[in-house]
Amino acid sequence: MATGPSTSETWDALFGDFYLRAYAREDDEGAHDQALAAARLAGCPEGGELVDVPCGFGRHAVALARAGFRVTGVDRSATLLGEARRRAGNARWPKFVQADYRKLPFPDGRFDAALNLFSSLGYLGDDEDTKALAEIRRVLKPGARLVLEIMPRDLLAAHFTERDWSAVGSGRLLLEQRAFDPAGGVAQVTQTLIEPDGARESMTFSVRVYATTELLAMARAAGFTEARAYGDFAGGPADLGSRLVLVASA
Predict the structure, then answer these.
(1) pLDDT attached to residue 152
(2) What is the DSSP string of the chain?
(3) Domain of residue 198, residue span
(4) pTM of the full structure
(5) Of 33-37, 79-83, 167-171, which range is least confident?
């Protein structure tokens, strides 16, 4: 299997129509609740300016804007941003910007909070992922917080399965086949979408899966003054059975 994350070309191919068909549900109440809980954990003031990066198809950004936050969603994918704009409609907020999160088109110290949710790190490898974190820190006001939510290595290792199926709406099925290198912390995944008429399409990618200690060290290397690990958006303790919620202060 691969020894590191996939290339940018692979990610650009994945985060398009294929990703929308696999993940873009219209009735995603869980995303709404997660977004508001993450904003609270970030300490974003009511009506504050918040960056959701990457924002994907707007599953969190739209909910936050409807709750009164001035949200800017950033993503590299024009396809996902198109869906995000459709979901936002003609509302003043959120705003959406196409950019790589290693080079954000904003001035230093602009935002009251930043969110990076739904395992949105690990695509680039240790050095480039740290650059992305540093760039997010740059655009935060002094003392403002980043809330990052991700699957850590311990959770993946404890619950690893080589394959599973899930229904993803509109009569569509998603098959995932996986391999994991615990020494290198790299997971290789082949996702196959099966349409109601039997048509199939597959994408294979490799992603870096970080241990909690690695992510805490990366946050410090990126210039955050403090970073803490939690097991949920309520600030509960992290353990082997929980996803990781990391809160880092600029």
Answers:
(1) 96
(2) --SSPPPHHHHHHHTTHHHHHHH--S--HHHHHHHHHHHHHHTPPTT-EEEESS-TTSTTHHHHHHTT-EEEEEES-HHHHHHHHHHHTT-S--EEEE--TTS-SS-TT-EEEEEE-SS---SS-HHHHHHHHHHHHHTEEEEEEEEEEE--HHHHHHT--SEEEEE-STT-EEEEEEEEETTTTEEEEEEEEE-TTS-EEEEEEEEE---HHHHHHHHHHTT-SEEEEESSTT-PPP-TTS-EEEEEE-
(3) 155-206
(4) 0.96
(5) 167-171
Q: Give pLDDT tens digits for 15-61.
A: 999 999 999 987 777 899 999 999 999 999 999 999 999 999 999 99
Shared-domain flag, residues 107 and 164: no
* Mean pLDDT for the chain overall: 96
pLDDT at site 3? 84
28 lies in the same domain as 78? yes
In a domain, 2, yes or no: no
What pLDDT does residue 43 have?
A: 98
Q: Is residue 3 part of a domain?
A: no
User: Looking at residue 202, which CATH number applies to its domain?
Assistant: 2.20.25
239 in the same domain as 128:
yes
Q: Does residue 223 fall inside a structural domain? A: yes
In a domain, 89, yes or no: yes
Q: Does one domain contain both 230 and 116?
A: yes
User: What is the count of structural domains for the chain?
Assistant: 2
Please, what sign has the CA dihedral across residues 186, 205, 194, 80? Answer: positive
